[in-house]
Amino acid sequence: MTPSEKISGAVAAAQGETAIVAFITAGFPKREKFREHLTQVGSAADVVEIGVPFTDPMADGMTIQRSSREALRQGFTLRWLLEELTAMQGTGQLPKAPLVLMSYLNPLLAFGFTDLATAAAQAGVCGFIIPDLPLEESGDFRKALDAHGLALIQMVTPVTPADRLAKLCAASQGFVYAVTMTGTTGRSASVPGEVTHYLDAVRKAAKLPVCAGFGIRSRVQVEQLKGHVAGVIVGSALVEVLESGADAAAFLQSLRP
Questions:
Q1: Is 132 a catalytic residue?
Q2: DSSP strand E in 45-98: where?
Q3: How open is the CA angle 22-24-25, to the nearest 5 degrees?
Q4: Candidates 49, 146, 200, 243; catalytic one
Q5: Phi/psi of residue 128, each to 5°?
Q6: What is the pLDDT of residues 117-130, one digit of tens each?
Q7: Sign of torsion, CA 208 96 112 52?
Q8: What is the pLDDT of residues 35-75, one digit of tens each?
Q9: Catalytic residue among 17, 36, 60, 223
Q10: What percent of the chain has pLDDT over 90?
Q11: Across the chain, where does the E strand assignment appear?
């Protein structure tokens, strides 16, 4: 099984229940607590999305912007993150849940696509989400990831035209990331009928599992989305739980119906 297939399999393994993809910002709230937080979150999530702090996170709302700024202030680097993940292997600290890195393009370009794909595979990373990498410009990075079986997960939104939705679903690996709203992460959102209709259209277009993200922070929302998507992505709400010092695993468990 390739790393990309591990992501799909972990979402599918929820077996009719809604899988939880849990987002944390690497190095936040305290860099020295990263391993502890990753282990804790990974014990309760089906997939863990690790945010790579960046100075201009254009898809992220205030919570994740604040967490990224603080992590960078503490000296976060992408190389540090990969070294931490590599060091966790064989210690029992690395979660069984597949790990996905969410990053903007600049840090990845600075690292170098080929070197990054090799280092990520060695660190146990299974895939990437890159909001500012258009499908048409993704060839070089996709080629580097394919050499190690790593996924490049594509994002679609409620305003994605039908023909482009089909292209993005066909190109996605691991799962299809369906953004539930226009705008940035973090805003609590209801789940009106038009959102479930849109998600049903994405599910129909995709061969892979579909996971919904942006604004997911309550069990009620997860229950409303059950049957329309295979999983949900929980970001800002979880970052706020970690920031407060509360039990992140208990919070994630509370989202499951």
A1: no
A2: 47-51
A3: 160
A4: 49
A5: -135, 150
A6: 999 999 999 999 99
A7: positive
A8: 999 999 999 999 999 999 998 877 778 898 999 999 999 99
A9: 60
A10: 83
A11: 19-25, 47-51, 99-102, 125-129, 151-153, 155-156, 176-179, 210-213, 231-234
For the chain, counts of helices (H) and of strands (E)? 12, 9
* Range from 104-108, 180-184, 224-228 that averages highest in pLDDT: 104-108
SS3 59: coil
**Per-residue model confidence (pLDDT) at position 86:** 96
Tokens at 1, concatenated? 């099984």
60 is catalytic: yes
Strands (E), 132-175: 151-153, 155-156
Structure-block tokens of residue 173: 């690996």
Distance CA 63, CA 199 (A): 25
Distance CA 187, CA 207 (A): 29
In Å, how far are 7, 62, 165, 177 from 154, measured between CA atoms?
13, 23, 10, 6
In angstroms, the CA 78 to CA 90 distance is 21
- Count CA atoms closer than 13 A to 49's CA, side-chain side: 29
Euclidean distance between CA atoms 193 and 206, whole angstroms: 20
Distance of CA 127 to the CA centre of its chain: 9
Q: Residues, the chain, total?
A: 257
DSSP category for residue 208 = S
